Amino acid sequence: MKTFLILCLLSLGLSEETTVVKPSFPGGQEVLNKFIQHHMVYPEEAIEEEIEIKAKVILQLDQQGNVDGLRFPEQVAPIFKESILKMVGDMPNWIPAKVNGTPIHSSVNLLIEFELED
Question: Which domains does the chain show, CATH number per domain?
Fold first, then answer.
C-alpha cells in the first residue's frame, strides 16, 4: 500500500501594510491532498526495493495560477522526480496569490512523502 504525506507551506515576504492573499489549490488543502493521492504513482522499482523518501518541491506559479516552474531544493532520486513531474503536469491551475487585489507570481512549497505501509 502507498501513502503520501503532503505539507503545503505558503510564504510571501511582504510588509504588514500590504493586503496579501496567498496562492491556493482549487478546493483547498484537502482537495490538494486527494489530488496528489490520486495522481501520484509510487515507482514500482522503489516499491520492490522498499525505498521511502520525503521530497521537497517548490512550485513556481504565474499570475494566472499556472505552474510555470518546479524546483527540488534537495536531491531527489530520478524515479521519484518522474512521478512528481507527471503529477504536477496534471494539476489544474492554482488560485493565484494577490497583493492589494492584483495577481502576482508566487511559489508554493510542498513536502511529499513516499511511504510504504506495513
Answer: 2-116 (3.30.2420.10)
